[in-house]
Write a structure and sequence with these properties.
Length: about 375
């Protein structure tokens, strides 16, 4: 599982100057596409294989690298979970780390004296932790959902919810019993709210999702303190007594998809609103590519699944939609099948964030891309005719 502790552990692994292989891989859910994973791993490895015989590397470095490639080529043989994969290897220094990612990443391999971690940091920053609460009037189950994964929340919180709160209320008149029952229910909701509050404060949960029969969900949400209600991402209807973790995860996933789409829409609107009135936001392909070329992008938003062919300068990294000559360094450009993907990679490399928005019903649709900037852009250079 991806967390900043894992990232830091890898970052601080002492490799004594030996080369580290960092490999990122998208793992498709579609079984047909899944079968192509070993082939894709191998073509990534082919990119760095020449280094094994590179005389400029010393013998320990080449030995370590050879062992890394051998190990990495076996990766795709066992089934991999859909999502993404980040792998770091430096056999000569006992580093072999496989991290399952909750989101797809761009296939890439890098050999360097340090692990290449920027994509991981970008992903870790962008993953929200959700607390999922499923309840009725007298019991509750708590889960955490990170990426696509649902896990039971801390046993301590569960234990507290299970503590008996009944007893001693026999022989009361009917009215009293109803009030007692009401009182018990409220106390139960408060105990659940306390547990939810702990998830936020102690487990780093960002948002809450509440599931159950409607009357319980509504009554519970109504009595939530303001600070927790603000974190409510959504609710779903489910019967606690027949709910399985798989069905809870499905329902939570739907809430999360809607919630994140809403957050994305808000982000895009915020960035687009700032365009024009500020020098810290741009929209549209030409300006955004220029911003990515100069490393100015702090947060990039792109419409999902849109590809635009373009050009890249191998010399200085300039990205554009056209032009045989780089307007920055005068070098010859190469054509790329998808210049937006190149921009995404450049932003990741520079430690920026990237969000993909579903097309349709988005304020971003007409611009395709927009970005919040770290610093004002220098003027966009004139592109020489292609
Ligand atoms: Zn250039």
């Amino acid at each position: 599982m991806l967390d900043t502790t894992t990232i830091r552990r890898i970052a601080h692994h002492d490799t004594g100057g030996l080369p580290v292989v960092s490999l990122y891989l998208a793992v498709p859910a579609d079984p047909a596409e899944h079968n192509a994973v070993p082939t894709r791993i191998n073509s990534l490895l082919d990119e760095v294989r020449p280094l094994v015989d590179d005389e400029e590397l010393d013998r320990p470095a080449r030995m370590s690298l050879r062992a890394d490639l051998e190990w990495l080529s076996s990766l795709g043989r066992d089934g991999l979970r859909p999502g993404g994969l980040a792998v770091f290897a430096c056999s000569g220094a006992d580093l072999r780390e496989v991290i399952e990612l909750p989101v797809a990443v761009r296939d890439r391999i890098v050999v360097d004296s340090t692990p290449w971690l920027r994509p991981l940091f970008a992903i870790a920053d962008d993953i929200h932790r959700y607390g999922v609460i499923v309840l009725d009037g007298s019991s509750a189950q708590l889960y955490e959902m990170v990426g696509d994964e649902l896990t039971a929340a801390s046993a301590v919180r569960h234990e507290r919810l299970r503590a008996p709160r009944y007893g001693g209320w026999y022989g009361l008149d009917e009215h009293g019993v109803r009030n007692r029952a009401e009182g018990l229910r409220l106390r139960h909701y408060r105990a659940v709210a306390d547990a939810a509050d702990e998830m936020v404060r102690l487990d780093g949960v960002d948002h809450l999702i509440v599931g159950g029969m409607d009357q319980h969900v509504n009554a519970f949400v109504d009595q939530l303190p303001h600070a927790l209600r603000e974190r409510l991402a959504g609710t779903f209807t489910i019967d606690l007594h027949t709910a399985t973790p798989a069905r809870i995860a499905d329902a939570a996933r739907e809430v999360i998809a809607r919630h994140e789409a809403e957050l994305d829409r808000r982000l895009a609107t915020e960035i687009l609103d700032a365009v024009g009135g500020s020098d810290r936001a741009v929209a549209g392909l030409d300006e955004v590519l220029w911003a990515a070329s100069v490393g100015a992008v702090d947060h990039l938003v792109v419409v999902e699944n849109v590809t635009v062919p373009g050009v890249r300068c191998p010399g200085c990294g300039w990205l554009g939609t056209r032009g045989a000559t780089c307007p920055v360094c005068g070098g010859e450009t190469v054509e790329v099948p998808d210049v937006i993907d190149e921009a995404v990679a450049a932003v990741f490399d520079a430690g920026g964030l990237v969000d993909h928005l579903a097309p349709g019903d988005s304020p971003l649709d007409e611009h395709l891309v927009a970005a919040r900037l770290r610093f004002p852009l220098p003027p966009v250079p004139e592109t020489a005719a292609a």
